[in-house]
Amino acid sequence: MGMIGGGPGSLIGAVHRLAAERDGYIELVAGVFSQDFEKTKKLGEELGIDPSRLYPDYIAMFKEELYKPEGERLDIISIVTPNHLHFEQAKLALESKFHVVCDKPLTVTHQQAAELERISKEFRKEFAVTYTYTGYPMVKEARAMVQNGELGEVRKVMVEYVQGWLSKEIESEGHKQASWRTDPSKSGKVGALGDIGVHAFNLVEYVCDTKVEEVCTELNTTIASRSLEDDNNSFIHLDNGAKGTLISSQVCIGEENNLSMRIYGDKASLEWRQMESEKLIIRYSDRPMKVLKAGTDQLSEIAQQNVRLPGGHPEGFNEAFANIYRNFAKTLITKRNGKQPTQVDLDFPKAEDGVRGMLFIEKALESNASGQKWVSLKQPELIN
After folding, report:
1. Which segments of 189-304 does DSSP mark as H helices, in order?
2. Residue 201 has pLDDT above 50, yes or no
3. Which residues are CB-neighbours of 110 under 8 A, at least 6 positions away?
4. Where on the phi/psi map is residue 300: left (φ > 0), alpha (ψ -120 to 50), or beta?
5. pLDDT tops 60 at residue 59
6. What mean pLDDT comes out for the span 106-110?
7. Full-model pTM
8. Pairing of strands 76-80, 99-102
9. In this structure, what DSSP letter does residue 194 have?
């Protein structure tokens, strides 16, 4: 694997590296970690990468790697740069015949995201988008329960992702992460919605195994000098008839990384919280509440395949992230060996999920600007 971005000061770059190499399927052997080549070389030395495979820019990396013999050249490009750079980097990587793992949101427009999906299919290259929370075993268990009908007909969905780290104007104090995430030229048209709101949206569609059909959104900017919104309230309609709410905010003082989801069917309901990720709470109207835990033999096959430790041993964000890279790598290896990957191996967020996320963002913006408010996510001019 080669990496673009993730240099000094990057939180997510280190997470990607740890996740990719955790299971021994992937080795980081090349990189362009920074626009400053000296910083790339310094980090590369710390990571033990051959200096000849550290590059001043991604174009040089793609060009040089393609000259290497098959078996030595890169297979995967991991893109962990700010949002506005994703499209051109991923496009050239696919056209250079590399598989791609890209951080979310996939691009800054729905049109760009759809183009990447098209190119990945044209060149027959696998594409993963790191919607991390689908990697948690108990999220997979929740999806299996919905698919198996254990909740019955889904009626109500409530998802909330709230943080407090942008409750003050830290971008003006030189905070690197805040600076680019609140800058429209780097983040795109949205702030909190693109950073964490798309995670909540993806979680709804993944667990409910359905699509959001309509959205009604209000975007708020709580700090007057901030260029992008930092708070979002949305109503959602799912195509199976269920109704729901989606809240994302980065100005909730005291909140750390509070992602939660509740799904109510006509037989039972479930609740999952990222900060207690190893538990899945099931509630009934006619019997006691049940708590399922990771690491037990009561779980579905797909959840069991993504549990890494025995019960009572905490797993979390890094392991969920690693599950995405592992399933992605196993899919590549299986296809390389001329076999068909299992549904368990194929269970990672793909380009189409990134496209859905960008469609949600654009329709939320349209709803926010509209007096009518309800906006369909099925407009034919936006969906191929």
Report:
1. 192, 198-208, 301-304
2. yes
3. 355, 358, 359, 361, 362, 382
4. beta
5. yes
6. 95
7. 0.92
8. parallel
9. I
Tokens of 81: 């740069």
294 CB contacts (<8 Å, ≥6 apart)? 137, 138, 277, 278, 303, 307, 311, 315
d(CA 290, CA 2): 44
- Which secondary structure element, helix H or strand E, spans residue 366, and what is its range? helix 351-369
- Cα–Cα distance for residue pair 330/24, rounded to 1 Å: 11
Cβ-count burial 224-257 (b if 16+ within 10 Å, e if not): eebebbbbbebbbbbeeebebbbbbbbbbeebee
Contacting residues for 190 by C-beta, under 8 A, at least 6 apart: 197, 219, 228, 229, 361, 364, 365
Q: Which residues partner with 334 through β-bridges?
A: none
Q: Which residues contact 335 (CB under 8 A, 6 or more apart)?
A: 126, 341
- Quick check: 128 and 101 in contact, CB under 8 A? yes
Phi–psi pair at 31, nearest 5 degrees = -175, 155
For residue 204, give the nearest of 163, 152, 263 by alpha carbon.
Answer: 263
What's the confidence (pLDDT) of residue 376?
85
Question: Which residues touch 267 (CB under 8 Å, ≥6 apart)?
Answer: 149, 150, 151, 152, 153, 284
Residue 380 has a pLDDT of 56
Residue 149 and residue 108: Cα distance in Å, rounded? 36
pLDDT the model gives residue 42: 96
Determine contact, residues 112/217, Cβ cutoff 8 Å: no
In this prediction, residues 15-44 reach a mean pLDDT of: 97
| pLDDT at 378 (0 to 100) | 74
Which residues sit opposite 269 in a β-bridge? 264, 283
Residue 383: pLDDT band by 50, 70, 90 thresholds? very low
Beta carbons of 234 and 212 less than 8 angstroms apart: no
The average pLDDT across 128-144 equals 97
